[in-house]
Design goal:
Blueprint lengths: L2 H8 L1 H10 L4 E5 L5 H6 L3 E4 L6 H6 L8 H11 L8 E5 L3 H12 L6 E4 L7 H22 L5 H27 L4 H11 L4 H13 L11 E5 L3 H13 L3 E6 L17 H9 L11 H15 L3 E7 L3 H16 L4 E6 L10 H11 L1
Parallel strand pairs: 1-2, 1-3, 3-4, 5-6, 5-7, 7-8
Bound molecules: iron/sulfur cluster (SF4).
The site of iron/sulfur cluster has 12 residues, from α5, α6 and α14.
Length: 364
């Protein structure tokens, strides 16, 4: 049954085109802070832009070579017409790159509509007031595109659906170690959530949770993987397995929103959404470093992981800065970890062979 998640993820473009033909508008989201509940409440499908490891996309990118692999890959996919079904893009600022990539796409009129989500890095009264207004502005503009006005009631229903998805994810992460779910399969459970209608994903998650296999012993040492790029993560999981380790849990920051706490749906739902996103969704610089480090350590403890791999992309300052701060905590806690920095190109992970092997051996 778990294979269905990978199949859904692999067929994400066909599925989006099918929905588009049936009249659903598709809004692409770049990183974790675009409020997907708003897009859903406006009657459209929020779909995360994710990398696709294929050298033909690197060749199609018009971005400068020293930009991160993530942005070059996405631009290559755009150049190849992969996202021909997208009606609009919503970018939340995480770094200078993704902020200015939006400017380029807007200037080139790559998508019919483009929105910048200006999420404050604080969550005090002023920040929540500001972000509530920002969400109302976005809701109005999204409603103009879809023809469906975002009402309080509609937004509450959307929040409830995404909250259910968060809750199911938490249950899955608690159960996956017990059920010894292969790490690669687990990647697609969350990856498909980024690109599948939430109702469909919730239904599939419920079926999965009710049919998880009984426990099989995991191979030692057990690892946690912190990463951003899905194809790179799959390669790294295979590499760790090659040297005898098992990845038992993970954290993919830009979609850790699914593991974040539920959003209160009482009172003004726009304000609830604003409070529910600010400082609660892991994103470098917009989220407490202390909480992020504690969250990683707690996830390792829950899963029984004795080591952690923190994978960043070459030329990605945002996650490099985050690591520089987290590293101090990890060292203080004597948390065994390996930081890897690699380009998101085919074969890049293979070059890390020796480092992964020696890290795994150091944990035995
Ligand atoms: S956070 Fe890093 S990987 Fe993501 S767009 Fe910015 S530089 Fe690229």
């Amino acid at each position: 049954m778990i294979a269905q998640f990978k199949a859904l993820f692999d067929a994400r473009h066909e599925k989006a085109r099918e929905l588009k033909q049936q009249g659903t508008k598709i809004i692409a989201c770049f990183y974790a802070l675009p409020p997907k509940e708003l897009v859903h409440a406006a009657g459209m499908l929020p779909l995360q832009l994710v990398e696709d490891r294929d050298s033909k996309y690197e060749a199609r990118s018009e971005f400068l070579p020293y930009l991160c692999g993530m942005s070059k890959n996405l631009d290559g996919q755009i150049g190849a017409g992969v996202f021909d079904y997208v009606d609009g893009i919503m970018v939340s600022t995480v770094c200078d790159t993704n902020r200015h990539v939006l400017d380029i796409w807007a200037q080139q009129k790559t998508f019919p509509h483009a929105w910048l989500v200006r999420a404050p890095a604080k969550n005090d009264e002023g920040a929540v007031n500001y972000f509530t207004k920002e969400l109302k502005r976005l809701a109005h503009e999204l409603g103009t595109v879809s023809g469906t006005r975002v009402t309080d009631e509609g937004l509450r229903k959307s929040i409830a659906l995404f909250n259910q998805n968060r809750s199911l994810f938490r249950q899955f992460y608690q159960a996956r170690v017990r059920a010894s779910i292969p790490a690669e399969d687990a990647v697609y459970v969350f990856a498909s959530a980024l690109t599948t209608p939430v109702e469909e994903h919730n239904a599939l998650m419920k079926t999965l949770l009710s049919s998880l296999p009984s426990a099989r012993p995991s191979v030692e040492p057990k690892l946690m993987l912190c990463a951003l790029n899905i194809p790179m993560s799959v390669d790294l999981i295979r590499l760790a397995q090659k040297y005898g380790a098992t990845v038992v849990t993970d954290d993919f920051t830009h979609n850790a929103r699914y593991g974040s706490t539920e959003i209160e749906a009482d009172g003004d739902p726009f304000r609830a959404l604003a409070s529910g996103y600010l400082r609660t969704v892991p994103a470098p610089g917009l989220y407490s470093f202390e909480d992020r480090a504690l969250g990683i350590r707690a996830a390792m403890e829950r899963a029984g992981a004795t080591g952690m791999i923190y994978l960043t992309q070459l030329y990605c300052d945002a996650y490099a800065f985050e690591y520089a701060v987290l590293k101090e905590r990890f060292e203080r806690w004597k948390l065994p970890h390996l930081r890897l920095d690699a380009e998101a190109t085919p074969g890049s992970i293979e070059q890390l062979n020796v480092r992964v092997q020696s890290f795994v051996e150091s944990l035995l």
